[in-house]
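User: My advisor asked me to double-check a structure prediction for Calcium-transporting ATPase before group meeting. I don't want to rely on an old file, so could you generate it fresh from this sequence?
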Amino acid sequence: MTPRENQENEPLLGEESRENKPFKFTPEELTQLVDPKNPDLLKKYGGTEKIVEGLRVDPAVGISSDEGLDTNNPKSKPFQERQEYFGRNVLPEVKQRSLLSLIWEAYQDRILILLSIAALISLIVGIHEDYSPRHPKGESRVGWVDGTAIIVAVAAVVLTNAINDYQKEKQFRKLNAKKEDRVVKLFRSGREQLISIHDVNVGDILFLEPGDIVPVDGIFLWGHNLVCDESSATGESDPIKKGDLEKNLDPFILSGSKILDGNGRCVVIAVGTRSFFGKTMMALRDGENEDTPLQIKLDALAEQIAKLGVSIALIMLITLIIKYFVTAAISGNFPDTEEIATHMILIVIQAITIVVVAVPEGLPMAVTLSLAYATTKMLKDNNLVRVLSACETMGNATAVCSDKTGTLTQNRMTVVRGLLGFKRFDDEEQISDWRKKIASSTYDILVQGIVLNSTAFEDKDENGNIDFIGSKTECALLDFVKSFGVDYKEIRSAIKPARVYPFASERKTMTTIIKLSSAGPSHGKAPATGDYRSHVKGASEIVLGHCSHYIDAEGKVQELDDNIRQQYKMNIVNFTTDALRTICLAYRDITTDDFNKLGDEPPLNGLICLGLVGIQDPLRPGVKESVEAFRKAGVFVRMITGDNVVTARAIARDAGILTKGGISMEGPEFRKLSAEKLDETIPRLQVLARSSPTDKTIIVKWLKKNGEVVAVTGDGTNDGPALKLADVGFSMGIAGTEVAKEASSIILMDDNFSSIVKALKWGRAVNDSVRKFLQFQLTVNITAVVLSFASAVMSDESESILTAVQLLWVNLIMDTLAALALATEPPTDDLLNRRPTSKNASLISYRMWKMILGQAIFQIAINISLLQLGPAIFHLSDSKEDLAVLRTLIFNTFVFLQVFNEINCLRIDDSLNVFRNIFNNHVFLIVQFVVILGQFLIVEFGGVAFGTVRLNWYQWLVTVLIGFLSLPIGFIIRLIPNVCIPESILNEDHKPIISQSKMHLGSVFEDVRTETMILSALKGGSKDKKSRLNELVRRKRKSTA
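Assistant: Sure, here is a fresh prediction for Calcium-transporting ATPase from the sequence you gave:
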């Protein structure tokens, strides 16, 4: 319910509706004022006075510190009624998920569930076999081992995932904890008090000072030149001046905004979950994460493997049943019912074993190990991964939408060029030389003006570091003089301003007048021609227009003639073209009489120009190289910023983001585009200036809809929706708000764009590691399944040549160790020399299938040949002892074929050099050594448990050499030409919406078309020639920009 208009003599709302309410306004009514800002509603409520009255507070005193406190009741606390009605300034703590819930979540994986079912069946059958009458006496009961080992593997994967998630969540909470609690200055009981932000109440009178981050929503009461930066809350990049609604100023103070300049007070109207900041934070807690491309592909693979395993098991079951009955019929001695039942159970067990063998139990472990290893290493590269799957998603990113300020640039305005005292410097390295050349009198006046004509000051920032706080332009100028060893506090303490005219957007200048005195430091003793000195700084064209004189290179005051004025103007144009914020510094000495005659406007006529400075937010080191690395990697970089389009274009061009054929435009123009125009514009859009949060969301949605994998960077509260919507959201660890961090999946601890390239590299390494492992795992499984099937069919007893425990070593220990070896390969720069893999590309590429099937066929042929020809090759008889030697020889050959094939799997493309960087991969070398050592111990000392016997040196040498053949076979397979294979199968790269070459070509056509139209306009009639030419030149400039 809202207050009724034009009924000033009546209560704000009907008494009946208010009789049970302690305040005239409900929390919902107050919230409607700021979300969105609603000045009409404020007028309807009766203005700020009625709000204050309705909140039962006197602005001159504040609320009482012991409001509602009952001294007779020891349990009584102040502000109970106020807090019960309006709430406290705290957000409900996100319930930290317990380890058990994370374990359950980690277990919701199709492959793990499939493994669990296979393990359970294996366990039941194994235990049944161990204790059945058919179990040979004296042999160990190891039937339970296979199933138990798979359960252990599943448990290891689940626990690793859950503990990793738990630690990441804990790390994230720790990161935010230090920023969540701080103190603010309030006015209570007629005096200033420092209070925790959690104890601020609706109705409190809050002090607003430069550098403050507002923790609550409020309405302006009074202040002087109060300027807020609401970019992190609303996306509005321009500072907003606050004031009374009656003066047509913005009276609403939003939570999450920052005070840039001035000071003032506001009355608090919303706290906690009802504040602008609180509502944004709560909204981000909803919603579920989408499956990543790798998860989708792994789930599909799990289904395919399960179907394949069951199909092979059914074929084996039918084959062995037919073989049994055909053999029995031919023999003429048909078995009885009990014997048939016994053999059927044996055949069913063999079929079930095939299913268990077919399931790649090492795959989840490989994915988990790869992600866990990558996220741990990424933290050293300043990437805190909050969502584990974001790591692999980033590997296939095709588009990056980046902020400018603080991400691409240093978020620190710096004086980089200047023409001061008519001496020029063109970069920061030349500043010290400039200082030596300039006249000391000019230097003294310059320093005096910069220090005194400023409201910026040195203090601790929100991170506890000593820095200048205030207008970024003034901070840059103070940093400039500080580099010469100037102590600004000493100058300010010695010389006090006599009069200050704050910066006003109407006149675009700031003026400070000081009384000249011989006292104070040397900078206060500059030559004077009057009793007072007026220091002026502001927009270059404006201040220069008020100047009649300038200081030359010798430090002498000279008349500013047209020639010199033109030189200054040319420098202003040059500075502006290079995206520098250009400030003109000037002064003028005035007499006491002139000072006494001053009114509300500063004395701007007859100024003496000290010179110009060009201020820039410089690019971070390595940004150009990073953008180029993204381009080589096939990732399209877009800059989305709240800054003006001229600055944005210059920074983007300098960084290498804006290229020939690319489009740059402003948010208001972008928002007017139709759906068809968006389809034409977004593919070529490289710079969006003056953007709003909605613009970023529109771009992300469009890109995702068109098959792109999108990474977004953001630091403000307003970036939350886009960060949440993106496939990978990067927030800033230093400059980022809590909202941005909550919405993101990766936090850049150093706010550096170059760290995103490292994330891309690690993401690709993770994807490659999983694929390398798959190539190895599937080769092992196909070989083991076919060998078990073939040997069981060929055997009189329908038994596999590999025992259950031998398969356990091959399928579990080898796979787990292989996961460790292949999942921990460090990334190389080579990963950035290829395009992203398409979202629709198969997890197993054609080249991988070629290697898997080629190696599997070779290994199956070798093992079956040994099964048939082994006795002749190794001179073995048909005795039971020699049969055990043959089985051991086949087992040993099988294992060494995998050992050498694992080296093959270090490359999943057609690269012939599989040994490249192998000695940098220490984990791989250690694992290979452990596997070989383990195999030696199993063969030589495994005995009964593994069904092996000792081999002599000759047998060892032959089996190892046969295993070594995997390497030359791999080399030959890679040399097989792909001529008959369609390009659509061979090329799994992501196809960009528009290529760089196509953009360049389009730009050339546009240039030719525009120039043709210019010639046509020149030939046309003179009446509209000028307007047509102006329009065409404007289009030409826009296209080349």
